Amino acid sequence: MNVSSDYRYCPHCTKPLVERDDAAEEGGRTRRVCPDGDCGFVHWHNPVPVVAAIVEYEGKILLARNAAWAEGVFALITGFLENGETPEAGIAREVREETSLHAETTELIGVYEFIRKNELIIAYHVQAHGTISLSPELLEYRLVEPAKLRPWRAGTGQALAEWMRRRGLPFEFVDRPGQ
Question: What is the pTM of this model?
Answer without folding.
Answer: 0.85
